[in-house]
Structures are given as structure tokens and as C-alpha cells.
Amino acid sequence: MSVIYQRVALIGLGLIAGSMAHAMRRGGLVGEIVGTSRSAETRNVAAQINLVDRVTETAAEAVKDADLIVLAVPVGAMGAVAAEIGPHLKPGATVTDVGSVKKAVIEAVQPHIPEGVHFIPGHPLAGTEHSGPTSGFAELFDNRWCLIVPVEGTDETATERLGDLWKGMGSHVDVMDADHHDLVLAVTSHTPHLIAYTMVGVADDLRRVTDSEVIKYSAAGFRDFTRIAASDPTMWRDVFLTNKEATLEILGRFTEELFALQRAIRTGNGELLHDYFTHTRAIRRGIIEAGQDTDAPDFGRGGTQK
User: pTM (2 decimals)?
Assistant: First the structure.
């Protein structure tokens, strides 16, 4: 595939940005990749492993003459980063992000984007429980979805160009508005993560079950909870604080469903339980048939991560 952006600046050098660097190189999609991080340690590691072509100390340096700028920092930090880089963006450049909340990101970033620069939020639906500059790998986005969330008045050519980059990195691409994105992600990602954190917290608080028993006898369900709950705490703190309304709406619905199942168990209503589990099992089969997971028991936990 031909070069889509001559120079790309990655602001933040964790799992997603690192995987983008590997995937862009794999596909020959960019001419040069410049990266930076607030952490000197992260910058040093990125330079040592040649994660990017050039590492800079500041975001302002990184974005100089860049055609695409990717904000890959926690959602709560994006406004400050946008304010820092705004005066240094060249006309015609595109700024995007990889945050899992979109309405709050738009509100925080858009005021700092100068006229003549395209701001096109995005969200790759891919990840692992690992973080840091050594956690990325080129295959992370393969057969996964990336949601692009253009703001009002976004240039269509610039949007298509960004979509072509994500396709070149292996993703399927869809376009969605910010409010709907945040509601969808509250269902598919944010609330499940909160439930996982809560379940692991319950196990830790239940002193009649020892730590050694939790570790030794973890069945698949609890093991997957612990994997999800190992995700970056700073990122998830910001997600819940910035997608508050949608998450609380889905949590309310979850609580209602949980009470209904609790009552079915208490009253011995096996028919309701069987029907409910049959319906939810069908949803699981749909995820597998759509190619977004596999029946393999250890999928996503070994082999492809670096």
C-alpha cells in the first residue's frame, strides 16, 4: 500500500500508539513516525527499541510539520495536550485521538484546534490488559473495528484518508456520532469493565475466600474478570468520569436485570433463567460469527502479544 501520511506524530507511546507504529510500518503507510511521552522513562525505552523513527521531549516538537497527529494519552489529559500543540500544527494537518470516550474529548480538544486543521476523533476497538511502549504489536487492529467520529463540518476527504490509514492497519472502519458512540461503548466496554473491577474487589473483600484460593481455583469466568480489571487504572478513571451519563444509564439497566435474575434464583424460576441464558448465549455466538472473538479458550492471552 502507498504512503498515506508522510509524517505522523504519536503523542503518548503506550499500547495503542505502539501498535499503530508497528502496524503503519508493516503496511508501509507512512514516511516517518515521530513520538513523544510525558515520561522520560517511556521516551528512553521507545528510543532504545526503535519504536518510532524519532523521539522528542515535548509534544510541541513532535507535531512540527506532521501530517497526522494522534492523541494517545488518557482522556483527562487530552485538553491540555491539545492546548500545547495547537499553535504548532501546520495547516492541512489532521488531529485524531484513540480515546474510548468521544463527546468529552471533542469538548476538550476542539477549542484548541486552529482553523485549517482537521480534527477527526477516532476510537480503535482493540486492546489488551498490557500497557507501556513495549506492549504494542502490529496485529492488534487486525479484523477489529475502528470508529471514526467526525465533528460538524469535517472535510470528507480528510475523513476518508484517516479511514484508509485504519484499514491499512487491518481495521474495519465505521462512522458514528459522538453521543451514540458513548452510549454504545458504555454497553460494550465501559460498564463491563466496571463490573469486572467490582467483582475482583468483591473477591478481595470476601475474607472467607483466601487470596491463595482465588489464585489457585480461578475458573474461566473469574480469570477473565481479573484480566479486564488489570487494565490501566488512569485510563479507566478518566473514562468513567467523562462518560458519566451513558455509563450510569447502562448501570441502572444492569441493576434492574440483576434484580430480576436474583428474584428468579430466590423463587426457583428455572424457566426464566433458562430463557435468559439462551438469549444471551445467542449474542455470544453472534460475536464469534462476526469474527470479533473465537471459541479458543485462551484467545487474546498468549502468542500474539509482545
Answer: 0.82
